Amino acid sequence: MQIRQPIVAVLGHVDSGKTSLLDRIRGTGVQGREAGGITQHIGASFLPSETIKETCGILYKKLEQAEHKIPGILVIDTPGHEVFTNLRSRGGSAADIAILVVDVNRGFQPQTNESLKILQSRKVPFVVALNKCDQISGWRKSETKFISQAIKEQDASIQTDLDQKIYDVVGTLSILGYQSEAFYRVKDFKSEIAIVPISARSGVGIPELLSVLVGLTQQYLQKRLNQEEKEPRGIVLEVNDEIGLGQTANIILIDGTIKKENSIVVAKRDSVIVTKPKAILLPKPLDEMRDPRDKFKPVSQVDAAAGLKIASPDLEGVLPGSTLYVATNDAEIEKFTKLIEAE
Ligand code: GTP
Ligand code: MG
Ligand code: NA
Q1: CB-based contact 310:262 (threshold 8 Å)
Q2: 3-state per-residue secondary structure call for 131-157
Q3: Whose CA is closest to 329, among 281, 261, 267, 282?
Q4: Which residues bind GTP (predicted)?
Q5: Ligand 1 site, residue 135, Cβ cutoff 6 A
Q6: Is the terminal CB of the chain with fewer CB neighbours within 10 Å at N or C?
Q7: For the chain, what is the mean pLDDT?
Q8: In the prediction, which pLDDT does 270 show?
Q9: Which pLDDT value is given to residue 269?
Q10: Binding site membership for GTP: which residues?
Q11: DSSP conformation class of 294
């Protein structure tokens, strides 16, 4: 069985620290270049296994022993601002699993609840990252990147304070129908949501957050990530006219493979288009698609899951959010056209 990389959506209220968390993992500075520090588009970036290994440190040993190891993670960054509900839904609908980011000092906020509803309606499993622990008043900075260790180094009153904040989240989630616990107290990861205190600023807790996430994925999502007999499909994020490329679409390939000689089948407002990509372009690993450090690389083939760009003059007028299929022959073109027409 061959499993693909999971698609991990990062959701939460505005300024809870979603982009900062990804910047910390990738070693990028995307958040600092956003207008007003606000995310306004869906982002995507690929975290290779080496990055996960480096981030998790000694915790990776156990993950490495799994029967089916994931070949990296495709992370989807979403905006938390209230006006971007449609983008949050789009990010949530592509997700296999999610990180719900909560500001530890603010607890659940309106778009935290909204994000949770999106995950709930699509039955997406998730982990809570309780961010900005460094901002808990009296929090002592420590050398360790492991939150379980950092907590031990805090004064007793700070430990109590953090526990209280964790129980506030447990209480809120319980009202919403979820059982949850601090990750170090979780007994059954299948029925309890794990809450991981972190700081995107200092990096503390990120090893545990990623370990819990990867562990869950490798244990419970194998079937979903198995690529046998999966229809090759993706979702269109945005369509642009780019200098030197013409019409392009940024897409997330969710399942399957896309090759230059394949046909893309996708809906326009009142028709279905079938087009062959003029070019397929792939961002470098760890580069955020909407703010890459390097140029996208032209490739002849991409396997899911991936964020990529396709260029083709026929893409003009394709609506963001549309499902896109990849066909290898006429019969498939017909099948996918009918599928789209039936939607
Ligand atoms: P939107 O995408 O606009 O919804 O925001 P976001 O959730 O991506 O949050 P963002 O990464 O933009 O961070 C918001 C602010 O919080 C920035 O000023 C960050 O520097 C700050 N911030 C994020 N994480 C932490 C943290 O762990 N500790 C502290 N002290 N500040 C943080
Ligand atoms: Mg952001
Ligand atoms: Na922000």
Answers
A1: no
A2: ECHHHCCCCCCCCCCCHHHHHHCCCHH
A3: 261
A4: 77-81
A5: yes
A6: C
A7: 97
A8: 87
A9: 87
A10: 77-81
A11: S
